[in-house]
Specification:
Layout lengths: L6 E8 L3 H12 L4 E4 L21 E2 L2 E2 L4 H12 L24 H15 L2 E3 L3 E7 L4 E7 L2 E12 L5 H5 L4 E3 L10 E4 L8 H13 L17 H4 L16 H22 L9 E4 L10 E3 L7 H6 L6 E4 L4 E5 L3 E5 L8 E3 L11 E3 L8 H7 L2 H21 L8 H10 L6
Parallel strand pairs: 1-2, 1-8, 2-5, 8-17
Antiparallel strand pairs: 3-4, 6-7, 7-8, 9-12, 10-11, 13-16, 14-15
Helix pairs in contact: 1-3, 1-10, 2-3, 10-11
């Protein structure tokens, strides 16, 4: 396709999840012309399409450590819902989920749309990247919309796909997880009172059904058989879909089909149990939530030891706060809490694919080993690293220098002007 006929932007952001939406808004606020490309018809990623509308963790040990564009949108969503924020300061990582902020996903997505319009972001929903070619002065991208292929040229591309798709198309080196953490298809179950159920009888029936091949161990969570949490949580974030790398379309297709099959197996089983005859399932996720596929190999790689000890990188662009949280289909949950007072940081080098020009990456694909990534993959950190990547891209274009040469003072100034907390 002719580059001369291409739409031209300073920055193209691939993916409008927690990282991408913040990257696009920040880059536009930094003076760049921005194109935001999203395969779904809604921003938010796992917050909206993935059915996990409770981003976190923004606070650590009595203070806020992640703020900025993502946090502003979370606050505005709660305010729009007339829902005061909970106390997030008294940190107890034994129950880390209590510090994730529940928000209305539809309100959140609509506020994102408003923020895109206000910042001047060109949004392209129902659009995917089909090809990436790195040139001397930028990146030639082929986009695939509903009416076909067309060219776009951007001086910088920020990969926020969650699967490093743009980085892979550019030919950069990646780390591919094998095995991957299991995925989860979220839904909401109604029509019963969990307090009135005979859980021992349901467990015995589940074991018998499992022996007959009617249900699988992970249909209610971990691979240890029936987990009553699925009933008390009403299905939310409960099942596990294992042994699939969903980084490409083939893997994504497999995990979507397997996720729906898991839910249907469990539904058929539960409907036969006393007290669950009126069970109904309501869809609250358009797609299976994926925890792990691929990460970039960056100029810097965050290791689990560096994360756990709270290493303060000289080029740190954000804080991160979450326990190491590796879901393993066979072993179970490998959770390692941070020591009191420890707040990890994310270096700029982890957002820059090694050996590339004009490319940045943010969100769960940032350069990190597997254990560190199990903590860095969460939504609040994705928001922080996305905003940092957006600022880096805008400044890189404005100053006409590679992202690694952007002065840290200039980067800090732009991020703090947009309420981010920079180490």
């Amino acid at each position: 396709m002719s580059e001369s006929k291409a739409e031209r932007y300073d920055v193209l952001v691939a993916g409008a999840g927690a990282a991408g939406l913040c990257a696009a808004i920040q880059a536009a606020r930094g003076g760049a012309s921005v194109c935001l490309v999203e395969k779904n018809g809604i921003a938010g990623g796992t917050i909206t399409a993935g059915g996990i509308p409770y981003p976190g963790i923004f606070h650590a040990w009595g203070r806020q450590v992640v703020a900025g564009i993502g946090w502003d949108l979370v606050e505005k969503t709660r305010k729009e819902s007339n829902d005061p924020l909970p106390d997030l300061y008294n940190t107890n990582l034994k129950e880390h989920w209590r510090y994730q902020v529940h928000i209305d996903p539809m309100i959140f997505a609509t506020l994102c749309d408003e923020a895109f319009a206000e910042a001047g972001v060109t949004v392209k929903y129902h659009t995917m990247i089909g090809a990436v070619e790195v040139k001397e002065d930028g990146v030639a991208v082929t986009l695939c919309g509903k009416d076909g292929l067309y060219p776009v040229f951007a001086k910088r591309v920020i990969d926020c796909t969650g699967d490093a798709n743009a980085t892979k198309m550019a030919g950069a080196e990646l780390r591919v997880s094998d095995p991957c953490q299991p995925g989860t298809l979220c839904y909401y179950a109604t029509g019963y009172d969990p307090e009135k159920l005979d859980l021992d009888a349901i467990k015995a029936a589940f074991d018998a059904a499992m022996a007959r091949g009617e249900v699988f161990k992970e249909d209610t969570g971990w691979g240890s058989g029936f987990n009553p949490h699925v009933l008390f949580s009403r299905g939310n974030n409960s099942n596990h879909i294992s042994d699939i790398n969903a980084g490409d379309s083939e893997g994504r297709t497999k995990i979507e089909i397997a996720g729906r099959a898991s839910v249907l197996r469990l539904y058929r089983f539960l409907k036969k149990q006393p007290g669950l005859e009126k069970l109904e399932l309501k869809l609250n996720a358009a797609e299976c939530g994926v925890r792990e596929t691929r990460t970039i190999v960056g100029q810097t790689t965050v290791t689990a030891e560096e994360y756990a000890t709270g290493k303060k990188y000289d080029d740190a662009v954000s804080y991160a706060f979450y326990p190491i949280d590796l879901h393993d289909a066979k072993v179970g949950l490998d959770k390692r809490n941070l020591e009191p007072g420890v707040v990890p940081t994310v270096p700029r080098g982890a957002l820059i694919p090694r050996g590339t020009r004009h490319l940045l990456a943010a969100g769960r694909i940032l350069s990190s080993d597997r254990l560190a990534n199990s903590a860095l993959r969460v939504q609040a950190t994705c928001m922080a690293t996305g905003q940092a990547a957006g600022a880096l891209a805008a400044l890189s274009v404005r100053l006409n220098v590679p992202a690694e040469q952007v002065p840290m003072a200039a980067l800090r100034k732009l991020l703090e002007e947009n309420k981010a907390i920079v180490p």
